[in-house]
Amino acid sequence: MAQHDGRPGLSEKPTSHWVTGEVVADPHPIPALGPGAYALRAGLYGAEGERLVAADGDAVVVAIVTVR
């Protein structure tokens, strides 16, 4: 398992500057993982740094990624 937290757009694009429909590139490096299926989850933080609540806790599953 791996995790990486960071501000949007490599800290260059805070959400206060987003416009409707804009796509913001936000790469997050993760270490090499062994073979298997992994859930890619995403979560958000509020303006005060608190983790925001999602339907299933504090993150949502974006995709299942298979490493061979």
3D architecture notes:
There is one protein chain. This protein has 68 residues and is an all-beta fold. Helices cover 0% and strands 22% of the residues. The chain is built from no helices and 2 strands. The chain has strands at residues 36-42, 60-67. It has a two-stranded antiparallel ribbon. The mean pLDDT is 88.
Class inferred from helices and paired strands: mainly beta
Report the strand count: 2
Mean of pLDDT: 88
Across the major sheet, the strand order is 1-2
How large is the count of helical segments? 0
Task: Bin the strand percentage.
Answer: 15-25%
Q: SSE order in H/E notation?
A: EE
Percent of residues in helices: under 10%
- Round the Cα radius of gyration to an integer and report it: 14 Å
Morphology call: globular
For the termini, the CA-CA separation is 15 Å
Main beta-sheet strand count, sense and barrel state: 2 strands, antiparallel
What low-confidence regions span 5 or more consecutive residues with pLDDT below 50? none
